[in-house]
Amino acid sequence: MVLRDIKKLIRKIVLSIFAISLIVICFSCSQTVEKTESTAEVIETERKEETTVVETKTAFVPESIDISDVSGDQYRNALIKIDELNHILGEAIYVTKEDYLKYKDVKVSLIGDSIAEFSKTHLNRCFRNLVQDSVPGREMVVGIEAFDAMKEIGRIGDIMILSLGNNAMRGIEVDVLEHVYNGIEGRPLIIPTIVMPYAGQERNRNRDLINFVNTHENCYIADWNKIARMGEDFITEDGVHPTGEGSAAYAQLMLKTVIDIAKMKQK
Fold first, then answer.
1. SS3 for 167?
2. pLDDT below 70 — which residues of the chain?
3. SS3 for 261?
4. pLDDT tens across 53-73, in order?
5. Per-residue pLDDT tens for 77-87?
6. Cβ(105)–Cβ(129) under 8 Å?
7. In this structure, what DSSP letter does residue 189 have?
8. CB of 108 within 8 A of CB of 145?
9. Beta-sheet pairing, 159-163 with 107-112
10. 3-class state of residue 113 by DSSP
11. CA distances for 219 relative to 111, 161, 167, 225, 260, angstroms
């Protein structure tokens, strides 16, 4: 009798343990299902958000320039090249026909080295009233003499471009920048960044140029370094000088910067 009771008790205990195990397993499964469903909902939400971002992002498509109503081969040829570069680089140096025709007569003066000299033809295409003094191999310190000579004969225009720095033996000479900045007496000063084959020198010199612009009013960076990297063949194998297409892009960058400044001054 006692043995039978013990067996019954053991059976009840075993059944109880089994029942508890089933309950635990079922609860765990339900939690896993809930987590899986929750994770699936999060993933689906993220996919919807990503899809929304992709659907709302539109690429910049430049409007083609119609030159049928433009007279003068100089202006027609300029607009043809502008339109070509608009489609290559888009917003980076985008210039409209209306802006070019309106601001092409702005008086621009430029002191530069070989980068500007290589771009001379295209710069004259962009600017009708350009006074340019650019010499290959010109060091920064010599830029002071060139500027003083230009100022002495009254050839400083409405906007000054100082395109030096590649041949600076001692790096960017801030006193040269200060001399020109003070000498133009409040006129806008544009300073292009530079391209060099030596990453460290390029970074340090562009940093110094940008720091100067950031600490002087009415002073502007034209980021030639950025534009030069955007084209497939804008820089020659020496890692410094622009190709024919690169010099056209350099000139249009100067044009866009001048237009942006002129429009800002009119507001």
1. coil
2. 1-59
3. helix
4. 444 446 677 789 999 999 889
5. 999 999 999 99
6. yes
7. E
8. no
9. parallel
10. coil
11. 15, 10, 22, 18, 13
